[in-house]
């Protein structure tokens, strides 16, 4: 498994991975496959150039990814948002998620004082992972996500101080 920053040339593979994640894990994400599919190629490439997005590769195939968005503005530039963390099931438990998180936090260190994220509150495995990395829940948004069947999911708001 190797890690590297994704760029515009990875946009198609990145979108395929995200659509897969949203399709296979509908209760783990706030987005649906059609949401990602609606994003144009130019916008997807621009997102990879603007944000810091790391990919995990099994050989030459993109197997996982996560991104950081750094806020701007005088009152918000001390914060970063961690988003879109996904690793294919076959690669879970391999240490790749830890390598990905370590690299993201290392990149954020010195640029941000606080890293925030949201995670589906019912996703106990993901919450334990984030807690192991020092993230703490500071709130829960009830009914944040509405599924096709009408069921609602809550989102936990989590943060970790870097400075």
Describe the structure.
This protein is α+β, with helices and mostly antiparallel strands. It has one domain: Gcn5-related N-acetyltransferase (GNAT) (Aminopeptidase, 3-Layer(aba) Sandwich). It contains five helices and seven strands. Strands 1-2-3-4-5-7-6 form a seven-stranded mixed β-sheet, with helices on both faces. The model has no long low-confidence stretch (mean pLDDT 95).
- Note the gap between the termini: 30 Å
**Structure class:** alpha+beta
Largest sheet: spatial strand order? 1-2-3-4-5-7-6
Overall tally of domains: 1
> What's the β-strand tally?
7
SSE sequence, one letter per element:
EHHHEEEHEHEE
How many helical stretches?
5
- Please outline the major beta sheet: 7 strands, mixed
What name does the CATH topology carry?
A: Aminopeptidase
The named CATH superfamily: Gcn5-related N-acetyltransferase (GNAT)
Q: Which spans have pLDDT < 50 for at least 5 consecutive residues?
A: none
Provide the CATH top-level class.
Alpha Beta
CATH architect. name = 3-Layer(aba) Sandwich
How much β-strand is present in the residues?
35-45%
Estimated helix fraction = 25-40%
Structure in a nutshell:
The chain has five helices and seven strands, in the order βαααβββαβαββ. The chain is an alpha+beta fold and 163 residues long. 28% of the residues are buried.
